[in-house]
Amino acid sequence: MTTLAPETRTSPVQYQDVPIDLIRKPVGADRVFNGVLAGASALVLLLLAAAVAFLCKYGFTAFRAAGLGLVTDPTWSPDSHHFGMLSLLMGTIAIALIAVALATPISLSLALMINEYAPRVLKPWLTGVVDMLATVPSIVYGFWGLLLISNLQAAPARWLVAHASFVPIFRTVSPNQYVKSIFACGLICCVTLIPIITSVSREVMAQTPRDVCEAALGLGATRWGMVTDVIFPFSRNGILGAILLGVGRGLGETMIVVLVLSQGNHLTTALMGPGGLGSIAAEITENFVASSVITKSALILLGLVLFMTTLIINIIARLVVERSNNGSL
Amino acid sequence: MTQTIEPSTLSVPPGPEPSDRPRRPRALPQSTLVEASGSAIAAVALVWLCFTVAGITGPLGFAICVICAFLLIYGVICWQQYGVLATKDRLATLAIWTGALVAFIPLVAVIAYVIFKGAAVVFAHFPHFFLADMTDLTATSPVTAVGAGAAIVGTIEQVGLATLFTVPLGILTATYLVNNRNTFAKMVSNVVDAMTGSPAIIAGLFIYLLWVVPQKEAGQTGFAAALALSVMMLPIVTRASQEVISIVPGSLTEASLALGAPMWRSTLRVLLPTARVGLITAMILGIARVAGETAPVLFTAGGNPSYNWNPFSGKQDDLPLRVYELIFQPGVNTTRDAWGVAFVLVLVVLTLFILARLIGAKKPGPSGFTVPWRSRREFEEEEAPA
User: Fold this and answer.
1) Residue B37 in 3-state DSSP?
2) Which of A222, A228, A308, A322 would best serve as a mutation to test chain B binding (most B beta carbons within 10 A)?
3) Complex prediction ipTM
4) Which domains does chain A have, with CATH numbers?
């Protein structure tokens, strides 16, 4: 070690005791770099704007032709000038709601089981399997549902129609037919939503502070008491967000509905048989390419409605999930 | 304190001598098994009796009645012996395990069904199904005449192109979102999140209007399909990269900045290389998600039973599209071939997923992060006490 004697310094540097401003405006190459990054980000917004703009542009023809008929007409048949999109919109919503209503309790059970009830060794494996099932293509679920579930659910559906038809949804517009219905689609979509809702709600529940859970147990709470009084209040928003994400996914579900549903075009409340309500995504998929100009335009308009609906639901869902992450009760 | 707690309000009744053993909330109480099996037998017997007397049949109704009767009997037994809180806890435990099983049955059944139906087709004539195309497909063509080769080529090219477009863009966007917290970044972040779950058919519709319509017949190409897949993939990759980059300790970048490196160097030489394992995982997960999407490629790729190696001209096939077309094709054997292609698709997607998990699970450095310019040995030498 050598030390420099003070007199060997040629000129004493005047140190300024000014802290570096880390959030200063970028200069020089950094400015270019930040510009490139911002440009890439702007492309995402541009993509969204372009998608909305194109859908608006091509859907406008039908919008002008339909006017108020869009919501007042009960029938969907653009070629004969019936633009009642409610029959398709209601079908889409019905499928999503049935799927989410069935998937939510099951997913929450699964999430709680993985987090709190199953042996801890299994936790990473179970999490991995659930995430893996979320990547299985929906056309595979749809194919499986078409050949297996659609037929399996016919017997319970017949029972419901026979014994519970005082509830308007447990009816069918085509007598004695119970397969290929909105209800069957909801059941199969439910299977695809389970991994999504489970995965989000499990992550949120796992963020509950462990010491609070243990404090509850230490005070003599049962495990279920800990779940209802600590985990649920902490993760309430996150669970709500997970459910909303499920709704968004269910609304946009395409291939399952295309494969399973036998679509109708009339507004009805009966969900248990073929030929009742339709579905927006399925209608676009099946009839877009081979249809007339006005039908194409009407389908694009429907696509725009579906797109905007899912976008809004997804944004609300994300905001709700984010709000839950600050750990406040 | 003058307040005392009545013993009856405690969930655990005070025994004569409180044992000093640790409480294990996950352990099964010893008596549970006896009580549960007793209740189950009683429930089956009761429901069977009722069904026989009333003359009702039906397996599903029987199962539901047995479950209800079991919960009732078991609940009453627990309530008699342990009180309300313990009963609630046990019934909830049962409900949660049942729910979890109900969740796993269809999910596992899907995979099992695809393997059961598809493996026989794919391995009937082993490498042939991966190489042949669908030009010889007729309503009754034997399994040796068809194959998914053209579809595999299409999937690889389309997803490859989409990856090429979206991964650099996605990583750049993610870096911007992590480095900046202004209104613009927040807006982009929300839009990315919202687009992650938007309907797949919209991506197909958008690219159809943007790219295919102006070119009329020549518009449907593998490239158009790649564009549609990119619209789906960009938000997925961005979101996943953002999560990976945001967990890199800020101290690493700050150290680089403190040493005088500009932001761009710190990002390219420190931030991104540190997160590279996670970024690769994000990329593969994006590929796995997108490879199975049918709706975006439906209007854009066009479908083509024979080989088309050029993604920039002519219609092209891919795996999900081929499954879709085979399902709707009339014929006795096309359903069988559809299962074969579906099996190949599931195989591809799940292999990619497991690969992503294996890469993501590797923990190169002691802290779980790789610092590229130092070898692992250096780390270990430093960690070891002298």
Assistant:
1) helix
2) A222
3) 0.85
4) 53-324 (1.10.3720.10)
Among B198, B299, B339, the residue to mutate for chain A (most A Cβ within 10 A): B198
- The domain B143-376 is classified under which CATH number: 3.30.930.10, 3.40.50.720, 3.30.750.24, 1.10.3720.10? 1.10.3720.10
| CA atoms within 13 Å, Cβ hemisphere of B185 | 16
A308 touches chain B (CB under 8 A): no
**Distance from B257 to chain A by nearest Cα, in Å?**
9
pLDDT per residue of chain B (386 residues) written in tens, 0 to 9: 455 555 444 555 555 555 677 767 667 666 777 888 888 899 889 888 888 888 777 778 888 888 888 988 988 988 888 888 888 888 898 899 989 988 888 888 899 999 998 888 888 777 888 888 887 777 777 777 788 888 999 999 999 999 999 999 999 999 999 988 889 998 999 899 888 888 989 999 999 999 988 887 788 899 999 999 999 999 999 999 998 898 888 898 889 888 888 888 889 889 998 888 889 888 998 998 899 899 899 889 888 888 888 888 888 988 999 999 888 887 778 888 899 999 999 999 999 998 888 887 765 444 444 444 445 555 566 555 54
**Which class for B182: exposed (0-12), middle (13-18), buried (19 or more C-beta within 10 A)?**
exposed
Q: How far is A249 from chain B (nearest CA, A)?
A: 6
Q: Where are the domains of chain B?
A: 31-122, 143-376
Distance, in Å, from the CA atom of A274 to the CA atom of B382, rounded to the nearest integer, reads 69
Does the beta-carbon distance from A255 to B324 stay under 8 Å?
yes
Report the distance separating Cα A173 and Cα A264, nearest Å: 10
Contact B96 A113 (CB under 8 A): yes
Overall pTM surpassing 0.90 (yes/no): no
Residue whose C-alpha is closest to residue B90's, from B101, B102, B76: B76
